[in-house]
Amino acid sequence: MRRASGFSLALLLTSTPVVAQTIGVAASRWLTDPRVSDYRLSISSYRFGPVAVVPFGQVAVQGPRDGGAFLVGIGGDLMVPLTAGARPYLVGGGSVGAFDFRRSVGLALWSAWSAGAGVELARALGLGAALEVRYQALSRDRTGGVTLGIRVGTPVGRRAGREAGAGRGAVPADRAPIDPIGSEPSTPRRRPQPDEARPRSDSDEARPRLGTVAVSAEATI
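Above: the chain sequence. Below: its structure as tokens.
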């Protein structure tokens, strides 16, 4: 746990963030008294290598309708994959808000934090479904305890195609040159010499050479 946290902090300090268009919807139920129902929406993320920082908007409904709270705020989660595909991952974050719509004025400062882990159960159509277990604490009525939640949205880790990709410099299989069926592999051919330009035949042996014809003509004269 400490090694993963230190590694994540080093990536945050040394890496350049990459902004990605993502979407995520999460809902969780706090196993606390008073009970809390938590809903979050995210539409972007900042990636530092494999680590992702995900900002979100949050709505937390605490307790019964009478005397409870309807809290609205913003926050962010830090997601640290434990494998290349991030099927299991660590998650933690915090949030703050200034609104409680069950109060007469509608204003109330509050804060929350959480830490836990998640695992992606399935992926389809570019989306992933994950189950998360966290410990969460809310400043309102000093509520805290274990929470169970589900998250649906952009997969936390890299896509399957990138996970199975070859190493650097490898040529994709669909782009590799393919020789015709039955053909021999192409090899550099040696340029034929003048004497090897064409094969000799019996008629070539019968023809006198140029030097022989010159000598015969001089003897006749």
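Strands lie at 18-30, 36-48, 51-62, 69-81, 88-100, 107-124, 127-138, 143-153.
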